[in-house]
């Protein structure tokens, strides 16, 4: 997923809106766990974690920015990334994945 924050939105409000628009999944601000900010000369990204059981059949693609979804483990994700099968929109690798798992498992 990729998107931009609208005028007047916080990064959290923007990601909640983008998840709802692109995947049909609704989260509250209370469900968000701030992970990290990434800043370059060209952009900045705030990355949040969410923990929720979601049935893949409940994912919808209302705005047609995404066309399909599937659950993958980190090994399959990294393979897809290396094979250019996905559009990488998050600076996220094995190190970040392990840190996210550590954070989520402590909830």
Key features of this structure:
2 strands, alpha+beta, globular
Can you give me a brief rundown of this structure?
This protein is an alpha+beta fold. The protein has three helices and two strands; from the N terminus they run αββαα.
How is this structure best described in words?
With 107 residues, this protein is of the alpha+beta class. The protein has one domain (11-105). Helix content is 32%, strand content 12%. A two-stranded antiparallel sheet has the order 1-2. A hairpin with a 4-residue loop joins β1 and β2. The longest helix is centred in the N-terminal third of the chain and has 13 residues, at 11-23. The mean pLDDT is 85.
Strand order of the largest sheet: 1-2
Query: How many structurally independent domains?
Result: 1
Radius of gyration (Å)? 14 Å
Strand content: 5-15%
> What is the overall silhouette?
globular
The unreliable regions are none
Q: How would a crystallographer describe the biggest sheet?
A: 2 strands, antiparallel
Which structural class fits the helix and strand makeup?
alpha+beta
Number of strands: 2
Helix content: 25-40%
The rounded distance between the terminal residues' Cα atoms is 25 Å
Q: Averaged pLDDT, please? A: 85
Q: Total helix count?
A: 3
What's the order of the H and E elements?
HEEHH
């Amino acid at each position: 997923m990729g998107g931009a924050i609208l005028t007047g939105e916080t990064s959290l409000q923007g990601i909640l809106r983008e998840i709802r628009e692109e995947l049909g999944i609704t989260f509250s601000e209370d469900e968000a766990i701030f992970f990290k900010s990434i800043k370059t000369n060209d952009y900045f990204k705030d990355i949040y974690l969410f923990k929720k059981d979601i049935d893949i059949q409940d994912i919808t693609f209302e705005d047609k920015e995404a066309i399909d979804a599937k659950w993958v483990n980190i090994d399959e994700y990294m393979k897809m990334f290396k094979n250019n099968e996905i559009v990488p929109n998050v600076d996220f690798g094995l190190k970040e994945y392990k840190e996210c798992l550590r954070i989520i498992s402590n909830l």
